[in-house]
Structure formats: structure tokens, C-alpha cells
Amino acid sequence: MSVLLRLTSALSSRKIGTDRFGNAYYESKADFRGYGRKRRWVLFNGAAEATKVPPEWHGWLHHTAPQPMAETKRHAWMLDHQPNQTGTANAYRPAGHDYAGGRRAVTTGDYEAWTPGT
């Protein structure tokens, strides 16, 4: 994180809060360029990755909600938020993908290839 960005955030804005991942959320003190609303941004804890913003803060960040939502009670069926894994070693690769060996299970006989004119 840039020292200049942290300094600017401290001087020209107010800190709204932090999420469970350690991301800090800020709102400008003055309206943003006459749009009638304040500018909002996040300082990420670690690498800047948009999928690290949890749903509780996403609505507030995009001016959909006036206040960040309170974290809801966790139900047994709810999964923990995971950042986007695309381009990493943890990315999903289906059977038959070149990086997963390039082979997939043989079809069971219910597949018939389409040929033009039939």
C-alpha cells in the first residue's frame, strides 16, 4: 500500500470501519466533484483484490446502502468468503483441462456427435 495513499486517506477522509479480513473503509469528508455524494474506497489488507470485499461492505462501497450492513448470523449452510482464485495454483480446472492432465472420463454411450445435414 502506498504511503501517499494512506496519508491522503488519513487527512482528507474519515475511517468508517474494518471488515473481518482487515480491510479498512473510508469516506471523503466533502462531496466528490459536485455529484452530491461522498467518495468511498477501501484500503486492502494485503494484495488489492476486489473479491476480498465481503457482501456486508459491498453495498455501502457502491452507494447502495447508507451504512454498512451488520454481519448476519452465520447459518450452517453458509460458506466463508473466498477471494477469486483465477490465475493461481488453486484455480478450478475441470477434468480434461490441459493443466489437469488433459484426459477426461470416457463418455457412457449417451453422447452422439452432431454432423451437418443429419
From TrEMBL:
Xref: InterPro entries: NDUFA12 (IPR007763)
Pfam families: NDUFA12 (PF05071)
One of the protein's GO biological processes: response to oxidative stress
GO cellular component, one term: respiratory chain complex I
Family matches, as NCBIfam families: PRK08183.1 (NF006040)
PANTHER family: NADH DEHYDROGENASE [UBIQUINONE] 1 ALPHA SUBCOMPLEX SUBUNIT 12, NADH-UBIQUINONE OXIDOREDUCTASE SUBUNIT B17.2
Protein name: NADH:ubiquinone oxidoreductase subunit NDUFA12
